[in-house]
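Appendix C: a fully annotated inverse folding record. The material below is reproduced so that readers can follow the format used throughout the book. The structure is listed first as tokens, followed by the designed sequence.
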């Protein structure tokens, strides 16, 4: 089971050459098992980045999200109270960004491998991570 960080999700479907081989292999294996997860915080993060002009898509970002939702092997995970509370209590996690904290807490809650290039997330030993 994998959980994709926001950039990993976007690159996986729009610029797959941006993903290192190791991350791509882990995602492909999870696809076969219908075990690719994305936090709905990443949906929020995409909307915020588009609104701020920091991210662009060839089509409307809502269409990108809708197309992802139609993939049978992808499951979106909404943060529940357990995940939200855990995101505040991540022992030893140095990251301050609330969306990142929720994504890390979601990976921990699911016991999923987090696919990310984020150095802070990669350095957090309470969650399995993969990138390059």
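Designed amino acids, in order:
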């Amino acid at each position: 089971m994998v959980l994709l960080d926001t950039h990993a999700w976007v690159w996986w479907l729009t610029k797959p050459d941006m993903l290192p081989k190791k991350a791509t292999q882990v995602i492909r294996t999870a696809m076969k098992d219908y075990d690719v997860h994305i936090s709905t915080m990443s949906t929020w993060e995409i909307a915020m980045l588009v609104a701020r002009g920091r991210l662009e898509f060839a089509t409307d970002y809502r269409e990108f999200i809708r197309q992802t939702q139609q993939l049978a092997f992808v499951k979106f995970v909404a943060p529940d109270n357990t995940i939200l509370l855990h995101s505040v209590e991540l022992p030893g996690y140095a990251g301050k960004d609330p969306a990142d904290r929720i994504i890390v807490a979601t990976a921990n809650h699911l016991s999923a491998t987090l696919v990310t290039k984020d150095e802070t997330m990669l350095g957090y030993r309470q969650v399995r991570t993969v990138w390059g």
